[in-house]
Write a structure and sequence with these properties.
With 116 residues, the protein is of the alpha+beta class. The chain has four helices and five strands; from the N terminus they run βααβββααβ.
């Protein structure tokens, strides 16, 4: 497994994962490749995807408003949930802005939306 920064290049595959995941509520006006690309540019280095053999198995979209940090759509493909102690979700989360290293940088709060 490899964790990489989420980019516009793998956005369509990530959107497909989110669309196929029960419980993930996407907004058709906001959760588009173009709008997510803008979000990624505004929040560089905060969103990640888990890959295995070049395929996206999980992802998290993260950002901040200058005061609060947000995690959106933290998702692992259904076939890879609950395996090896949820290694995919844990690995993606460990890179997210709510980890101790990021919290110590000054961010005080984080919002979690749709942990799936």
């Amino acid at each position: 497994m490899e964790i990489k920064e989420l980019t516009i290049k793998n956005c369509e595959e990530v959107l497909s994962l989110w669309q196929s995941t029960e419980g993930v509520g996407l907004d058709r006006d906001v959760d588009t490749k173009e709008r997510i690309g803008i979000y990624l540019q505004r929040n560089p280095g905060l969103s990640f995807a888990a890959f295995e053999k070049g395929k996206v198995l999980g992802a998290v979209l993260c950002g901040h408003d200058g005061r609060r940090g947000y995690l959106h759509h933290l998702t692992v493909a259904e076939a890879h949930r609950n395996c090896e102690c949820s290694v995919y979700g844990n690995a993606i989360y460990s890179f997210s802005p709510t980890t101790p290293a990021v919290r110590s940088s000054g961010r005080k709060t984080a919002g979690l939306n749709e942990l799936t």
